[in-house]
Amino acid sequence: xxxxxxxxxxxxxxxxxxxxxxxxxxxxxxxxxxxxxxxxxxxxxxxxxxxxxxxxxxxxxxxxxxxxxxxxxxxxxxxxxxxxxxxxxxxxxxxxxxxxxxxxxxxxxxxxxxxxxxxxxxxxxxxxxxxxxxxxxxxxxxxxxxxxxxxxxxxxxxxxxxxxxxxxxxxxxxxxxxxxxxxxxxxxxxxx
Amino acid sequence: xxxxxxxxxxxxxxxxxxxxxxxxxxxxxxxxxxxxxxxxxxxxxxxxxxxxxxxxxxxxxxxxxxxxxxxxxxxxxxxxxxxxxxxxxxxxxxxxxxxxxxxxxxxxxxxxxxxxxxxxxxxxxxxxxxxxxxxxxxxxxxxxxxxxxxxxxxxxxxxxxxxxxxxxxxxxxxxxxxxxxxxxxxxxxxxxxxxxxxxxxxxxxxxxxxxxxxxxxxxxxxxxxxxxxxxxxxx
Lengths: 192, 235
Fold this sequence. Notes:
The complex is a heterodimer of chains A (192) and B (235).
Chain A: H1 4-13, H2 20-39, H3 42-58, H4 69-88, H5 99-103, H6 117-136, H7 139-149, H8 155-162, H9 166-184
Helix pairs in contact in A: 2-3, 2-4, 3-4, 4-8, 6-9, 7-8, 7-9, 8-9
Chain B: H1 3-10, H2 21-28, H3 30-48, H4 62-82, H5 92-120, H6 145-154, E1 158-160, E2 167-169, H7 170-184, H8 188-199, H9 202-210, H10 215-226, H11 231-234
Helix pairs in contact in B: 1-3, 2-3, 5-6, 5-9, 6-7, 7-8
C-alpha cells in the first residue's frame, strides 16, 4: 500500500506538478535542520536543501512509489551535503552557527512552557553542546542520529538511506546516542 | 515489549503510548534501564530543539524552490511545445538561446558523465536498430556514441552526424545513443537523461552533478535570468 508521499509523487509523475509543493512544505524543515547541523552554515544548508528538492523534482520520473519517498529524499540530502562539504572545504572557514540559532531568530528556541531565564540558558547551552558533539561523532553515526531525530525516520528507512543493514543503522544510533548521553550526563554534584 | 522495541521507543522523539509496558520492561531489565538513563539527556536535547516553529523562517525557501521549479517546468513545456513534429527546428532563431542552454547541459553531461561512461565502455556500436521514431536516417544507427557526444560538444544547436553528414537536432542524436544504451545496458540514468533532455529539465540535473558553482547561483542565472527573458518565454 502506498503511503501519502508516494501517492503525491505518483500524482506529480502524472503531471500534477503543483502537488510537489506539499512535499517541500512537509520536509524542508527537517532537512534544513539536518543540513545546518551537518554543514554548520545556514547559507550552505539552504543551498543543499534547495538542491535536494530540485534534484527530487528533476528526477521524479525515476522515483518508484513502491519505496519510501523520504528515504529517497534523505539519501539525496546526505549525498549533497557530502558534496557541498568537499566543495567548500577549501574556502575560509566561517564560524558555524548552532542548528537552532541559524534556523530561527538567532536565539535558542523558547521552551514550550514558561521557564526561567536560567533554564532557557541551560537549554540553549545543551542544544549547542549537542551540535558540537554531533560534529565530533563519526559521520555515519551523526547522520544516523540526524535522520532519527531531525527527520524521525524509522530504522529501516535509515538503513536504506545510509546503505547499511538494519542492525548497523541501529548500532550507529545507539553508539552515537551513548556518546552524546555520556557527554551530557550531569557531573556528580552538579545540578541537572 | 522486548529489548529491541524498548530501544526503538527510547530513541524516538514521539513514541507511541505503551501503557506502562516500558516501565515493566525496564524494571526487569538492567541493561535497558541503563540505556534509558544514558539516552535521556541526549534525546531530551534533540527534542528540545524540535519545538520551535522555524519552518517559515528557516530556509525561507520553499517558495523560492517552488518558484524555480515552476519556472523550469514552464520553460520546459514551452520548449516542448515549440519543438516541431519533424524534430527539425523551424524556429531556430527564437529557440537558439534555449537550445544553447540545453546544449550547455548536454556538454557538461557529456564531458563529465557521458563521455566517461561511454569511453569506459569503449566505443559502442549500435548493435540494435533503433526504432527510429525520431525520423533520423537509418545510417545514424552506425554512429559511435563517443563520436556523437564529441560532435555534440562542438555543435551549438543542430548538429551534423559525423557518419552520415545529415543534420539532426542534438537532442535526437542523443536520443539515438540512448536507444541502444537502453537496450544494451541497464543504465538507469540513460532513460532519465533522455527523458529530461526532451523535457528541458536535464540541464538542471547535469549542472547539479557537475558544476563547481553553487547550484542556486546557476539556477538563478540560467533559469530565472536567461530563460525567462528568452524569446520563447516572451512568445
